[in-house]
Write a structure and sequence with these properties.
Blueprint (H helix, E strand, L loop, with lengths): L5 E4 L24 H11 L5 E4 L11 H10 L3 E6 L4 H8 L5 E7 L10 H12 L6 E8 L3 H18 L13 E6 L2 E7 L23 E4 L4 E3 L12 E2 L5 H5 L2 H11 L25
Parallel strand pairs: 1-2, 1-8, 2-3, 3-4, 4-5, 5-7
Antiparallel strand pairs: 6-7, 8-9, 9-10
Helix pairs in contact: 1-2
Length: 288
């Protein structure tokens, strides 16, 4: 049985924001049903114990997110959520102290599109959630060389330093691509802005390596299984979990050829040839 470090489940592809760094999906807007979510958990129970509610979309918009977390706990899964954080005030009572919730990644780079008191609400949630000694939070930023990005990031970093009363200056530490521990179980991560793989952008080469189908896989909101969390359109459609078992899908011909190609440092899928993010796997690694 193939084991993954994590499996991404896109519980919704709907988002309340339209940020420049995120791709816009052409798929129809959907929210995953409880029945499909239950089926997915049953299918992947032997493949990983770590789930990420993420591909595209804002997971905190899902009206059944509390039920999903309870189902994960019943099935011994640990959940990591990536969110823009804009709904944290409205949703916090539904997710606080859920046993399955392991990690919250807050994408603070959406700051310019966020409501008043955006950072304060996120910080307050983390402060309360930290009452659970197993809870982890990561505050994430993309860095870009334009002045607006630099000024915005510096403002956010200053707010982080003030709220968490950390005894050092973040800018004095090399943060690019690394996690910095702020306080116990609270981290800061800053990495370079990247472009998602897109069939319309130039080919960057036929040689390389990726962790897709090696350490991770992803399941889109309609049940489509793809190799990784960056295939936001389901271009590398390996199969649908509504029709076939997860094991059949990841051991299918297309999946095996992609895996074999990466093992030989060959890029088999056209979409992967247009993905710069795979180059990061040879440079940085996340503690998560």
């Amino acid at each position: 049985m193939k084991k993954f470090k994590r499996i991404y489940i896109e519980i919704t592809n709907v988002c309340n924001l339209s940020c420049k760094f995120c791709p816009k999906t052409t798929r129809k807007p959907e929210f995953m049903s409880i029945d499909l979510f239950k089926k997915i958990l049953n299918e992947i129970k032997d493949n990983s114990k770590y789930i990420y509610f993420h591909v595209v979309g804002e997971p905190l918009l899902h009206p059944d997110i509390d039920t999903f977390l309870d189902l994960c706990n019943e099935n011994d899964f640990k959940v990591n959520i990536t969110t823009n954080g804009t709904f944290i005030k409205e949703i916090k009572n539904k997710i606080l102290f859920k046993p399955a919730l392991r990690l919250m990644n807050f994408s603070l780079h959406c700051f310019e599109n966020s409501p008043d008191n955006y950072l304060d609400e996120i910080f307050n949630f983390i402060d309360i959630a930290s009452g659970n000694p197993d809870f982890i939070a990561c505050l994430r930023l993309w860095y870009h060389e334009d002045l607006n990005s630099i000024d915005r990031n510096q403002y956010i970093i200053k707010k982080i330093e003030e709220f968490f009363k950390i005894p050092f200056k973040i800018n004095e530490i090399s943060t690019k691509g690394k996690n910095i521990k702020l306080v116990n179980n609270i981290y800061f991560h800053q990495a370079a802005f990247f472009k998602w793989p897109d069939s319309k952008i130039p080919d960057i080469g036929s040689k390389g390596f990726c962790l897709g189908l090696r350490e991770q896989s992803a399941i889109l909101v309609d049940g489509t299984v793809v190799p990784c969390c960056l295939d936001n359109e389901g271009t590398i459609n390996l199969g649908n979990i509504k029709k076939n078992s997860f094991t059949e899908i990841i051991e299918g011909k297309r999946a095996r050829e992609l895996y074999k190609g990466f093992s030989e440092r060959k890029i088999i899928e056209p979409l992967c040839r247009k993905c710069g993010y795979r180059e990061k796997f040879n440079i940085t690694a996340s503690i998560y």
